[in-house]
Each structure stands twice: as C-alpha cells, then as structure tokens.
Amino acid sequence: MPELRKDPVTGRWVIIASDRAMRPTDFVREQVIPKGGRFCPFCPGNEQKTPPEVLAFRPHGGGRNEAGWTLRVVPNKFPALRVEGELNRQGEGIYDHMNGVGAHEVIIETPDHLLTFGELSEKQVEDVFWAFRERVLDLKKDRRLIYILIFKNHGEAAGASLEHTHSQLIALPVVPKRVREELDGAKRYFDFKERCIFCDIVRQELDTGPRVVLETEHYVVVSPYAPRFPFETWVVPKRHYSHFEDIETSSIHNLGWVMRATIRKIDKVLERPPYNLMIHSAPIQEGAMTHYHWHIEIIPKLTKVAGFEWGTGFYINPTPPETAAKFLRDAGLV
Amino acid sequence: MPELRKDPVTGRWVIIASDRAMRPTDFVREQVIPKGGRFCPFCPGNEQKTPPEVLAFRPHGGGRNEAGWTLRVVPNKFPALRVEGELNRQGEGIYDHMNGVGAHEVIIETPDHLLTFGELSEKQVEDVFWAFRERVLDLKKDRRLIYILIFKNHGEAAGASLEHTHSQLIALPVVPKRVREELDGAKRYFDFKERCIFCDIVRQELDTGPRVVLETEHYVVVSPYAPRFPFETWVVPKRHYSHFEDIETSSIHNLGWVMRATIRKIDKVLERPPYNLMIHSAPIQEGAMTHYHWHIEIIPKLTKVAGFEWGTGFYINPTPPETAAKFLRDAGLV
C-alpha cells in the first residue's frame, strides 16, 4: 500500500510508493566524473578569465587574482542578478516588477580540476564553509539584500554548467516563497508547542533511529520523514541557531568531517550521482529566531520531475527514507 | 538589467534574465519522435496487457477490452495510489501519515503508436478532453477523492515512461499545497478587488497584446507575465468557470482546435520539445467559485531545475514571455 506522509515543517504531502520500492541500482543516472582537457576559467593560471575575486584563501601567500590560492570566490560572470542600482518597484496594470538587484558569486572549492566535492580533504570541505560564512557576513552589510541562498549543483544533470567543482551564492532583495513557507510552518509549530520543530525532529530521529544516517557531537544526518526525492538527505545541527552565519568554530570544524562523510556515502551507494545541495538559513537582516533552525538539504538527481509534481507540488518518491538511510548507514565511512 | 516579476496569483517571484536572453535554438533539448518497433501495451491488440478499461470510444463498435477503439482509459498498472481501503489518518510522534488512497488512470489518446499529441486531428484532441471530463464526473462520486490532477508528460525528458501518446489522471484524498496556494492567492485578490484574477489577466493581456499567442471565441493563449520556464504557455478560457468539468459543449469543441494549434506552434518553434501539460481546476467536492478559474499550463522542458530553484522556489527564466509569445505567434498555424 502506498503511503502519504506530511512534511512537518511545510505541510507538503508526499507519496511514498513502497510498492515499487526502488533500490540504488534501479535508478538510471549519469555518473559525475570530471574529465578535464578543455579550457576552464576556474583553473589556476586563468584568474583573469573571471571577474576579480572577492575572497581567496592563500595559505602560502601569492598576489590577488594570481595562482597560489586553495579556494577562491568570484562574482558570477553571467549573473542572474546585478549588484548595482535601485530596486525601483513598479506596477504594470495588475502586475508587479522590480529591478533584478542582488549578488551572484561562485565559490571555487579547489584549484584541482579533477577532484569532486566528495574527494576534497576534510580541511578543504571545512574551508568551503568558512568561505560561505565570510561572504554572508560581508553581503549582510548591504541592507538591500535580505536573503542569501548558498547552493551547489553537482554534475550537468543537476544543472552545473562547468565541471570544476564549485558552489554558488545568490543574494536576493526579497524573501523567497519557499523560504517563507518554511519559516511560517516552523513559526506555527512554535506558537502551538513552544518548541523548535527542527529540535523536535533531531530528538525524535535520534530516539527512533531508522532514518538516522550518522551522528556526531554537533550534527545529525537523516533521511527526512517525508522526502520529496529518493535518498534526499538532511544535515541538521544539534544546537539551535536560526542563521548559518552564527555557526561556532568547533561546529564548522565538525561540519568538514560530517559533509565529507555524507557525500562520500552518497557517492558510494549511488555511484557518484549528480546532486543539489542547499543551505536553508534565516533571512540575513532578521535577528535570531527561536522557531527556525538552519540546516543543509542534499537531493541526488535520480528521478524526473514531471506533470504531476508541477501541477500539485506533491512528490512521488519510490524509495522509503528508512530504506535510503539503511543503505547510507551501511556504506561505512569509505 | 535582469528583472524580477511577481506571479499575480501565487505571489511567486521569478527572475527574467533578459541579459542572457535565449532564443528557441539556444536550448539543448531532446526531440520527441516516437520510434515504435518495441512491444507496447497501449497499442491495439494488446488490450489484455493493461488493467480492464474504465472508458473507451468505439465509434465503429467492437467489444470491451478489444481492438477497435479510438481512445481508451485504463487504470495505471503501477499506480501511485490505490482506490481500495480507508485513509486511516495516523500520527507517529510529531509526524503524520495516511494510506495512499486515490485513483491513477491513463488516457490512451489514439491507437496509432507513431502519432504525437500535436499530430492528432482536431476531433481526436477534442475527444481527449471529452474523456477527461467524463472521468472526472465519474470519480467525483467517490467522496474520499477531493482533488483530481489531469496531466500529460510528453517525451522521456519530461517524465514519460512509454512513448505511445497518453495523458494521466491522479485523484487525491487531499488538496495539494500548490493548488491550495493558487486557490488562496485567487481568493485574496477577489476579497480585495471583487473580481476574478484570471478574468483580469484575460482582459489585460488582450488589451496590451505582447504576450498573446492566439485568441479564439472561447480561449486566450498567453505567455504568462511571470513564467517560471522559457516558453511556458497558458490556455485560459474567456468565460469564468472554476471547474474544468463544467465546460460547455461549444467550448470543448473549440478547445480541440486551440490545443492542437498551440501544441503545433510549440512543436514548430522549439522543434518537437518534451513538455508537461497540466489542467488547473478547483477541488472536485467544492461548489462553483467566483474567485477561481480553470486553465491549462504547458511547460516545455528546456532548462534544468537546480539548487537555486529547489532552495528558494524562485525560478530564473532566460526568455522573456514577450519574446516567447512573438515566436509562437509568428509560427502561424502550421
């Protein structure tokens, strides 16, 4: 019997189609293995082919926009939004529009073209999160920007246009609808229970166990109760903070290990699948919230989103999260 | 300068990235051309390979579940939901679930394996909508079912698992979140203006013109003001009805011509792209609504949905709807 499950935060229902339960090898997927061999603007020596850097880590020295970096952040050469200008909100009959003011940056995670995110060292992965934090703290000073999404598209099928491993950051002048829904859902739960829903999820998952992938001092990695996609995986900090950028040094250090282990498990079980990774965090101009809790969502690209999903916002997931978590747990730490 | 536009119904913002404005030929897409040559359960003679039919048109006679039909509706052999049983709503700590009760049917639009939807005759297309209507009116009698989505996945990249042209229908025991958002948005507008937002869209689009693809006695076909996807196209009836199944005979007759012309324009301009088509209609157990207006949405599959879209619900659309509408308008009636 298929089961309908409700996401406790957003209220979205999903269909867990356990009748057609799919195992990792049942999915048709494109293996992500960087090939190299073509010109790459993210490789060392090509620093002039990107807009000037806004941040770089150079532990052994070296000049700005020259080789020698271990991580580099640059504005996107083809930005979805522009940092210059005013919003200029306007009507057009019944419609509303404004200028596309915002920021769009690329975090080049390593100088090595052939490594994937899961193949970076613990220290390199940790550095990626330090870079995210530093960029958010800087962009936050611009009061026009009220929400920042940090995300990673891994593999062409997941939307990556360059294969050299990188993440992206888009700063927006509005709080997106999807984020507002999550904030509102968490607020409703808090108003009712006077507890954070994510803190409750952490507690219940650790208590019951079948959806836990791994646990460390600072984090729990779980297959969520009502996942939209097979092998969807959440990394949730145990300690309550609404904003990612408020993360503590010991927690960011632990995150390097946790993210590396999680991605390596996904790479092993699903044979290096394409995936998207997103940091869900509170709007940057708002103060600390007792009801919201930052976390990371990872969605391997294994199924196609089709008419039913577009028309309803319902998702049909052929792999129960308990099955997915068991595969990931059993994969060891590779 | 990129522009942010707001969908007037749901309040979702999209980024119209006019800087990187893409023309039809810029998209990498998979041409959908049925090949045939393999066993197909939807072809005449294979009626025993599907569950028994729930509806069929046999203008020249013939027995049930035998060849001779021009259109045939059967339950999905691998249904996402099952029609038997009770919902049995239950909690599981902080989580909620219920049994996957519902219906999942397939509308086989023609006996001819090699025709696509756009290649059917006007009469055949009209018959498809008659079949949709008849199935909704029948399923509506089951009071457990409160929402029906009718949709079509055209081409493998858009989620079709069989190439023989067909549509699907899924009847659900809950109103999906995405539908609820559209209903609520339309309600808010009505409460404020005492007018239907879709009636206002029809009026403003016909007044201004640049987003109109075609107009007939009963319908307007437009590129919506804030489309999520390039060449997203809406077919909106001029006359206000909240429920598709209340459609009048003259309107369904006109719809055969309108849908055929619209799909043929899309096939011509985008060279037979994969696409999804969805009928947006009011929940079947609720009475006629002054604030909601049924319509059809068509989304060609030209771009990839990636981390930014998943994380925010924002979409980046590289083709302004005014450009898309011009291409479709200029394509003629082929």
Descriptive notes:
The structure is a homodimer of 334-residue chains. The first copy, chain A, is α+β, with helices and mostly antiparallel strands and 334 residues long. Chain A has one domain (3-87, 96-330): HIT-like (HIT family, subunit A), CATH 3.30.428.10. Chain A has helices spanning 122-139, 177-193, 197-208, 249-269, 307-312, 321-330, and strands at 3-6, 13-16, 55-57, 71-75, 90-92, 95-99, 103-108, 147-154, 166-172, 212-215, 219-222, 233-237, 275-280, 295-300, 315-317. Chain A has a 10-stranded antiparallel sheet, with helices on both faces. In chain A, helix 1 (122-139) crosses helix 4. The longest helix of chain A has 21 residues, at 249-269. The relative contact order of chain A is 0.17. The model of chain A has no long low-confidence stretch (mean pLDDT 95). The interface between A and B is large, with 76 and 75 residues.
Q: Can you summarize this structure?
A:
The structure is a homodimer of 334-residue chains. By secondary structure, chain A is an alpha+beta fold.
